[in-house]
Amino acid sequence: MKGQNKLFIAIVVALILGVAIGGLVHVSYPESAESFSKNIKLLGTVFIRLVQMIIAPLVFTTLVVGIAKMSDIKMIGRVGTKAMLWFISASLVSLFIGLMLVNWLEPGHVTKLPIQDAASAEELLKTSKGFSMEDFVKHIIPKSLFEAFATNEVLQIVVFSIMFGVALANMGEEYSQPVIKLFDIIAHGILKMVGYIMWFAPLGVLGAIAAVVATNGFEIFKVYAIYLRDFFFALGILWLALLLVGYLILGNRLFELLRRIKEPLLIAFSTTSSEAVFPKLVEELERFGCNNRVVSFILPLGYSFNLDGSMMYMTFASIFIAQIYGIEMTIGQQITMLLVLMLTSKGIAGVPRASLVIIVATCSMFGIPPEGIALILPIDHFCDMGRSMTNVLGNALATSAVSKWEGQLDNHGGNL
């Protein structure tokens, strides 16, 4: 725990230093801000790429081992059903909270932001035009496992891993045991790597934060203060709802869980990547006492289907853009939008800036000018910090809850 606290302190210090250094460059050396931002961002890039390097093999090995070890197909079905019920309920609650609060707080009516040129949103608009049911299916089902590995398509890896794990579980121990043992050893080896990679986290945090502040300065906080305030208030309500449910299921152990995942939460907040903390989250949930079979089954699924922060943001941002353009939407239209977002968002895990792509597609569908996405692009990084952290919390709670329901939550902490 001493080492963990050192890393946590190092990350907090790096966060503060990043804001200070970025602010100094923006104020004192504005002509160098762009090149400085480009160079220091490489620290964040190194950290993210180190983590991305191990995600595909870790998801594949842990999920195959987790399912194959279950050997009981009924148990796989039972655990999967409980997980999906949690995911769907949490998604609906997240979308509904976003919808309710954006209508109540009306940040689009208050801020009176100027309508910006859509050039900054051009790339996203192009990306979203191809969104269709065909792309949705292609995104879920892998054409090649190696292609899925190469592009870190977590959802495709999950689909293959589940099928392979079920096949191994049905082959009998004589055939499957050597393969399971090999994958188990590989998974433990990768988890060992996690410990080394996490010490790059403070540098990654420093680079990511300094780059954003150097480019945009502190003004960005003032210009969008109301939008950020309302969005983070809505996130706070979502956190209260998630933690309340977590407390009802886990009792006082909820506080132990929060203490264990404080590092992953902070890294996700600083780097805007819930993906970056996946390996560390696996480790901490197992240390918390969750059964490793349940963790390795639920967590990869959660990263594909249980993005609570992103879900809430999608309704919040879509209605915000409508408010900016003075477009009034009926309750019926908003409920329809909620259901559309519920469905379309389930196949976009792993897509860069996935929430924004879905928002653009949804705006087009409901007659809201999709160019309005340009309004929120400058502060999307800061919103992404909050939603990434919320995604991590939601998945940690989902895994712990399913472990508890299965009677697989160890009271004194589990072993890796």
Walkthrough of the structure:
GO terms for molecular function: symporter activity. This is Cation:dicarboxylase symporter family transporter. It is found in: Cell membrane. This protein is mainly α and 416 residues long. 80% of the residues lie in helices and 0% in strands. The model is unreliable at 111-117 (pLDDT under 50).
The main pleated sheet reads as: none
Mean pLDDT: 80
Ends: how far apart?
Answer: 15 Å
Instruction: Name the shape in a single word.
Output: globular
Q: What is the count of DSSP helices, taking H or I runs of 4+ residues?
A: 20
- Which runs of at least 5 residues are low in confidence (pLDDT < 50)? 111-117
Structural class: mainly alpha
Q: Total strand count, please? A: 0
Which percent band covers the strand fraction?
under 5%
**Rg estimate, integer Å:** 21 Å
The level of helicity is over 70%
One letter per element, helices H and strands E, the order comes to HHHHHHHHHHHHHHHHHHHH
GO molecular function: symporter activity
Protein name: Cation:dicarboxylase symporter family transporter
Subcellular location: Cell membrane
Main location: membrane
Outline of this structure?
It is a multi-pass membrane protein. By secondary structure, this protein is mostly helical. The chain has 20 helices and no strands.
Topology:
Elements: H1 2-28, H2 33-70, H3 73-105, H4 107-111, H5 122-129, H6 133-140, H7 145-150, H8 154-169, H9 173-197, H10 201-216, H11 219-223, H12 225-250, H13 253-260, H14 262-271, H15 278-288, H16 292-305, H17 308-324, H18 331-344, H19 354-365, H20 373-405
Helix pairs in contact: 1-10, 1-14, 2-8, 2-9, 2-10, 2-16, 3-12, 3-16, 3-17, 3-18, 3-20, 5-19, 8-16, 9-15, 12-17, 12-20, 14-20, 15-16, 16-20, 17-18, 17-19, 17-20
